[in-house]
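I am writing to request your help with a piece of structural work I have in hand. The matter concerns a single protein, recorded as an amino acid sequence and a row of backbone structure tokens. Could you please explain, in whatever detail you think fit, how the structure tokens follow from the sequence? Thank you for your consideration; the sequence and its tokens are set out here:
>
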Amino acid sequence: MRAVNDLAVQAAPRVGVVMGSRSDFETMQGALDVLRDLGVPYEVRVLSAHRTPALLPTYGARAERLNLACIIAGAGGAAHLPGMLAAFTRVPVLGVPVQSRALSGQDSLLSIVQMPAGVPVATFAIGAAGAKNAALFAAAMLATTDGAVRARLDAFRAAQTQGVLDDPHFDGHPQAGEA
């Protein structure tokens, strides 16, 4: 799958991945890995709703100009980045709450999920699982119009299913077709 991985870095980005701080990169790495494995071209930026607020409208306009399918925005603590970006662009924003030390990411989750009516942000689980699922969601969005992404996403899902079926503890489970 190396050629697909190279495509994700070389082609025009279809997904923006942004984070509020360089320290959020560890969490957001899962999203980058999934996008790369599925051959979805992406770009990565660090933008802060609090430290670089003037860059948010610029990035929102750029996302539209580049015709990004969505922006995956990870943020911790007060976690205003996803909502602020959503206010500056028509590009769908997928919010990933980054786990914080103070409240284990509950603060981030509530900051992202409690957007006022009219400024939607799709919100995923706290941490790495949320980042990976946001990337899978982005790929599913693209798969509605991109057959190559659809085929790779289908292959990923089939492999995931096969991994469960191949588990030696699965044999004989009633849902496996054996009673």
Remarks:
- Strands lie at 15-19, 42-46, 70-75, 93-97, 122-123.
- Helices lie at 2-10, 25-37, 55-65, 81-87, 106-113, 128-143, 147-165.
- The longest helix spans residues 147-165.
- The longest strand covers residues 70-75.
